[in-house]
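Z., the sequence and structure:
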Amino acid sequence: MRQRSLIAVTAALAAGALTLTACGSRGGDKGSDSGKGDTVVTIGVDAPLTGGLSAMGLGIKNSADLAAKTANKQQLVKGVTFKIQALDDQVQASVGQQNATKFVADKSVLGVVGPLNSSVAEAMQKVFDDAKLVEVSPANTGPSLTQGADWRNKQVRQYKSYFRTATTDAIQGPFAAQYLYNTAKKSKVFVIDDKKTYGAGLAGTFTEEFKKLGGKVVGTEHINPESKDFSAVATKVKNSGADVVYYGGEYPQAGPLSKQIKAAGAKIPLVGGDGINDAKFIELAGPDSGGDLATSVGSPVEELDSAKQFVADYKTAGYKEEYSAYGGYSYDSAWAIIEAVKKVVDDNGGKLPADARAKVTEAMQNVSFDGVTGTVSFDEFGDATNKQLTVYAVKNGEFVAVHSGTFTG
């Protein structure tokens, strides 16, 4: 990892410092290994650890865990041991809100990595902000989370405690539109979404840019995210004359949707955002998924010099699951929290202040380091300053990067 040089904390924890104890493990997750520090700082992780999106969720958890273990091994913050505590949000906003309340109640939690889903984030933000507990998502892309519901016309910071290392759908959707129209030479699109915050938002920004470029939307449809039978919409796609399908949603529905569209006779690519960029999509879509496309935030981790150490360390750590689409961003989200904690400890003579949560949230705004995914820092809204995106195509049973760049708008 090309983390910037860090000056070790020289002062030991002094008398009167805030004493934190490790919280008990929940759900059988024991969290990160404890080191020699006599103060335990817990980094919460909220993600779908079970169910259809667990491949991504477990990658988020494991990658955050690796960051904590690395910081402990390096004794990055003298006198402090970092511990991960992961909770399963089951891709449900109500569960995510309950998890946020649990993290707030645990005084050892000074930051939270997650969630995966923008709709879950909407239910968690105020809970964290009221408690001045910093939250850094590796995966949320809904623009309204940082810039408000009217973000297209007026950007207003929503919560000072919310940050993300992933770029937003305000960029991702139009980036896909530009690639499809200008590079792939597609001019007639059928747009489908799952009606959720992420999917509908992504489809909306894509559609706006595609029309602006001169493309034609020949049909639109909303699907039930609980369904797996998309035969009716597949028939509509076939009859529309579309030369491409854009889907706003995630791989549990995108895979079967792609398969059924091809089975209906429409041999055209399905294109989606980072929510379908997972090997599970290809498994669900079947052998006819070749040529399907997905955009994703950043550049391929495997191709980044800055990520080589992360990839090697993840393999050495022996996690059962892959780091998946958001592994690098999860590591960087956890490391951002660690950096903020270090700054607060440094500024307070080597110990945590009584208002550590508020101080960590304040410090996060100015965090900047060379991470797994490149330079990690945040703008005035809490959004990532890294705006790089990549287009992936399904080739020979796997997603392969075919185009990288930034949205020009």
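The chain has a mean pLDDT of 90. The radius of gyration is 21 Å.

Let me know what you think.
H.
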